[in-house]
Amino acid sequence: MASNIFNEIVSAALAGHYGVLGLNVFDELTLRTAVEAAEAEKAPIIIQTSVKTVKSIGARRLSDHFKLVSSASGSPVSLHLDHCPDRGVISECIREGWDSVLFDASHLSLGEATAQTKEVVEEAHARGVNVEGEVEGIQGVEDGIGSDDAPTLYPLEKVIEFINVTGIDCFAPAIGNAHGLYKQEPQLDIQRVRDLVAATNIPMALHGGSGLSAEQFGELIAAGCAKVNISTALKRAFIEGYRNYLTAHPSAAEPLTVIAQVRQDLQQIVVHYIRQFGSAGSVSS
């Protein structure tokens, strides 16, 4: 297993039985707010970027900005590439300084997914970059990647073999979770998480966190979901923050005043999840 800040963060969370917030940011405001909120809570945080965000801002510019913001933080901060089926983007982010990447191989056959994921791990580990693996797919579409179709599920022993053969550092299991907002109460296979952690001793990543209950989060984190992803909730807070302020203040003409209010709304979301996942105060002074 490669050793860098991502691995240190999730390994400590797995051992400490808390969850680290993996937050999908999409601009300077959400990035800076997330890092500063985590520092105030004395918590680690994993800053996640979608392929769409990387292409929109540019890998080098995004990496440089992350380094500028994270270097001023007293809390551990890691940069992670979320769901990416594109090997070219994976390689670009590895070169440009991401701490970890999620190679989404759910669109491939199990044999091909194993072979390609192993190649990604070799490429990433050579540069000290960690790899999150995904082979079954998480239902729902996020930033243009994914599907609303029910994901393919493999027998537990096949998934364990995939983890062991590829050498990934973290795994995203399909356990009834979904991206976006849940249309009905999800039936989560928490035992599958326990079994995977027991067999592989690596952290699990929970995708589709927006909309789950505090009880569900607690059970999944206790089972071994050391990294918990949130995306939709932050996006909604961002849009609703602007909408609510401008509706209440239709004659508003000072952008910095509007941004300050939206920033406060975003900060509340970040703090809420950090505390709910139990990572607040986990960073010693």
Question: Can you tell me about this structure?
Answer:
With 285 residues, this protein is an alpha/beta fold. It has one domain: TIM Barrel (Alpha-Beta Barrel), CATH 3.20.20.70. It has 11 helices and 10 strands. The strands form 2 sheets. The chain has an 8-stranded parallel β-sheet with strand order 8-5-4-3-2-1-10-9, sandwiched between helices. A two-stranded antiparallel sheet has the order 6-7. Helix 2 packs across helix 11. The protein starts with a helix and ends in a 9-residue tail after the last helix. Its cofactor is Zn(2+). GO terms for molecular function: aldehyde-lyase activity; zinc ion binding. Keywords: Metal-binding, Zinc.
Produce a short descriptive summary.
Zn(2+) 2 binds at residues 104, 134. The protein has eleven helices and ten strands.
Number of strands: 10
Strand order of the largest sheet: 8-5-4-3-2-1-10-9
CATH architecture: Alpha-Beta Barrel
CATH superfamily: Aldolase class I
- Name the poorly predicted regions: none
Biggest beta-sheet profile? 8 strands, parallel
CATH top level label: Alpha Beta
CATH topology: TIM Barrel
> Would you tell me the structural class of the helices and strands?
alpha/beta
Gyration radius, to the nearest Å? Answer: 18 Å
Q: SSE order, as H and E? A: HEHEHHEHEHEEEHEHEHEHH
Number of domain modules: 1
> Number of DSSP helices?
11
Principal-axis shape equals: globular
Helix percentage: 40-55%
What labels describe this entry?
single chain, 285 residues, alpha/beta, TIM Barrel, eight-stranded parallel β-sheet, two-stranded antiparallel ribbon, 10 strands, globular, metal-binding
